[in-house]
Amino acid sequence: MGCGGVLVKKYPFLIGLERALELVAGFRGEAARRVLAGDEDLVRLGFRRAVAAVEGWLDYPFADTVEGEVASFYLGLAIAYRAGPAAVSRVVAGESSRAARLVAGEPGEVAASILGGLGFPVERGGLNIPWVVDRRGVVTLPLGWRMGVDVFLRLSAADEHAPELRLANQMLLSGGVYLSDARLRALASAASRLAIEGRVSEASSLESEAIERYARHLAALAEGGLPFVPEALPACVKEVLGKAVRGVRLGWLELYLALVFLARIRAGPEVVAEVLSPSIGRGAARALARVYGQSPPTDHRLPPCEVLAASGVCRCRGSLLAEYRQRVRSYLGLPVVSR
Fold first, then answer.
1. What span, in angstroms and rounded, lies between the C-alpha atoms of 88 and 76?
2. Domain boundaries, the chain
3. Does the N-terminal or the C-terminal CB of the chain have fewer CB atoms within 10 Å?
4. What counts of helices (H) and strands (E) characterise the chain?
5. Which enzyme type, at the first EC level (predicted)?
6. Is 124 exposed, middle or buried (0-12, 13-18, 19+ CB in 10 A)?
């Protein structure tokens, strides 16, 4: 793998979606979009990457291959786009943080390549300026890179509050901005953040049922909740919700358990209506869902397992929420985190 491949694997935002499609699928266009978005394994990898960005454990390498890094990057953004603004903001922040950590360890030549690849060309400068005076005399600061003022201003317009992007803080000479390796890396990080933000609109063109499904999961996680995954429900909760779905009328404690559990995992009111309609009737379920949506009982405690067992509702051990969190993350292929 050449230098370009190494850079793209570490910084997949360096290439646009069309080039990414050619790399991953072998061709470009709408058909390639459908192939990428319809690959269940790659979409699942993209979801895992998006969650890693949201939760702060996105690192390098994330995938074994260049193709895996690029596909997971774009699919992660596509899932975040479908999940909503909160998810987009957190995924972009996580991807930007990862890029900044990687750029911080790069030599100036790599930072220059990143900037050039993103449309902010730099060249060798070769300027030394007096910096401090110590016992050895005057110590100079090497400014080994030069960027045109017009190019610098395009980049600085992205974040006027960042000190490293203020023109007043730069060394200007003959229409050029002279930069040290450290300042060049800071600019490369800023350009990376801009590029990642820009790739969201490209990724939004990727659509599939799998992307929509994982977007619902990501939306819940980005808002601090848990996705509603029936397959991962603890046996006790599955038993109660199963009765409701089959049309069995729930007792008051069973109904309380169902509502509080769904609220604590931050399931939407549409889930409440769908699950409870067969048990209490569509009209009552919709009315309850409306109240639930306006004021979900997220601060209510689940009944202890001892109470549930003594009341004949179901048998369980420990925390139902902790069990569900572990089961749902395992089901979705995510590392289990303790809270």
1. 9
2. 3-104+198-219, 119-182, 226-331
3. C
4. 16, 4
5. transferase
6. exposed
The mean pLDDT value of the chain amounts to 90
pLDDT digit string (tens) for 124-148?
A: 988 877 766 677 776 677 888 999 9
Distance in angstroms (rounded) separating the CA atoms of residues 47 and 222: 12
Q: How far is Cα 179 from Cα 171, in angstroms, rounded to an integer?
A: 7
Asked if residues 245 and 275 have their Cβ atoms less than 8 Å apart, the reply is yes
The answer to whether the CB of 318 falls within 8 A of the CB of 305 is: yes
CB 111 within 8 A of CB 1: no
Phi-psi region of 318 (alpha: psi -120 to 50; beta: other; left: phi over 0): left
Nearest to 193 by CA among 43, 89, 110, 121: 89
Measured CA distances, 169 to 75, 103, 164, 190, 262 (Å): 38, 21, 7, 16, 53
The pTM of this model reads 0.87
The pLDDT tens digits of the residues spanning 71-110 come to: 999 999 999 999 999 999 999 999 999 999 999 999 999 9
Give the chain's length.
339
Among 225-234, 300-309, 330-339, which is the least confidently predicted range? Answer: 330-339
CA distance linking residue 315 with residue 143, whole number of Å: 70
What type of residue sits at position 245?
A: V
pLDDT in tens, 271-281: 889 998 998 88
Distances (CA, A) of 91 to 85, 329, 339: 10, 18, 21
